[in-house]
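Protein modeling request. Please complete all fields; requests missing the sequence field cannot be processed.
Requester role: graduate student
Desired output: 3D structure, token encoding
Chains: 1
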Amino acid sequence: QVQLVESGGGLVQAGGSLRLSCAASGSIFSINAMGWYRQAPGKQRELVARITNSGSTNYAESVKGRFIISRDNAKNTVYLQMNSLKPEDTAVYYCNADVLVVSGILVDYWGQGTQVTVSS
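Delivered output (120 residues):
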């Protein structure tokens, strides 16, 4: 069993910053890609940013230049630094990880989500 625990969401004014964290724990052999997705009310869940275990990243066009994804492999933790936040960034943010569990199976895990609200 693997758990992803997110933290760092909250309410911020437009132009402000927040940093999200997601720590993975449990029966982990290794973690391949980790990422952040978001879902706004009435919309589909969308990719925000993703990072491989070698550090390669990709971002949604809407957050390029404002958000930075990083990870600490020793801590099985992924971060999302969000700068210059806009009201349209308001959503529930979900952590995702492709985990090779100790049994040798690759499993896709999700966190419980953390609310980010940006006021205008």
